[in-house]
Structure prediction request, 464 residues.
Amino acid sequence: MELSTFSIHRRIQIVIFTLLTSAFLLRFLTANLPLTAVTALAAIFVILFHLGSRPYRVYLVNYSCFQPPPGRKCTYDLANDFLLRDGRFTTPEPVTFMQNIYSKSGLGNDTYGPPFMFEENQTPSLKSALQEAEEGIFSAVNSLLAKTKISSEEIDVVIVTCGSFSPSPSISSLIVNKYNMKPDVKTYNLSGMGCSSGVLSIDMAYRILRGGGRKIKNTLVVITESITLNWYEGEERSMLVTNCIFRVGCAAAMITNNPSRRSTAKMELTHSLRTHHGADDSAYRAAFQEEDNKGITGVSLTKDLIRVAGVNLRQHIKILAPRVLPMSELVRYVYSVVSTAMPRGELKPLVPDFTTAFDHICVHTGGKAVIEQVGRVLKFGDSVTEPARMTLNRFGNTSSSLVFYELAYFEAKNRVKKGDKMWMIAFGTGFKVGSLVWKWVSDPEPEVDNPWNDSIHNYPLKVW
Prediction:
């Protein structure tokens, strides 16, 4: 959702037309004024036009992450008992496979399972899926509204993303109903966009608020997933992986273009980029919902997924690098690209050192292999991927909300301060890559609802 070439050309045309019109009017309205006075008036007019046409700045006022109650922890023993109960699988092979995947996944014993796992019959249903969604959404939104002191009547836009659960009425309607929002609130309900949709929904809020004017000030973004109805009981190995790594999670964020909120906001969103690589068949089918040979629906995570993530990450950073790298690193990178194209040049361009552009990086915590692949492609050391690895251990793959649990890790560790720059990057089905670039505009204060408060003293762990 980048600014299109048409939009750029249109802005140039408007500026040229305005300048010509102003020059024409000044010519006739100021015929008796000296040239210096006419020039000064023209300069003032252009400055006022520029100030009035600039996009609005966009801020993250605050965010909240849902932390389920301790009784919902999905320990290895609980997950194992769940697999073995009532002959859920007809052969032992799927159970053995999932046990092996889970033991190597990087997930710890403190992640959270969906409500149906703790019910007597342990049967996923629409009712339990709605319960999972409502618990996370209402908890996160309640906490967010209390922290920001923004009432539901002040919310102009609601954006909800939930990748694989799309009930009717929609989740955005559920939120409007629950919080008695005003009739002219604009709502958007995103689905099927995978783990990158948290970043992409913030990008959407950013685009709306940048050009929305002062009539649209506050956007509530709710980032969730309901994994209940996606439990797979077949025997296809590529589909069984999702049972092992996905866990309960939800985040809510308040995004605004209101300049009066800057002093109390956490961060300003300075850059946003999303790239879509679905034109390539292997990228399109790298993670795919389909039926197995017995007609059981599941999400297949193919063996090609990690390769696809690496290839498309490289394409993504080619676009991002010129926008964010400091000049010295950018010159070094461009030189390597040019020399690659020359006869007898280098075999491949150098990988830009993004740690020269950012103080902190939230790496997509989709799984152990994904984090390792990002580390390899971008030449990140363990200190850079530590927050991602710890977030995976503590909360598992919470899908679209994962980068906000990672953001909370930075805050809980007191690692961020005013002026710091942060990069969030996430991947999603389709295949999509999304980046958000933030600048901290204030020193963060301890949050009573930070989901790491009860465990941060245990981290980092040496888990890999």
Q: What stands out?
A: Residues 5-29 form the longest helix (25 residues). Residues 1-8 have pLDDT under 50 and may be disordered.
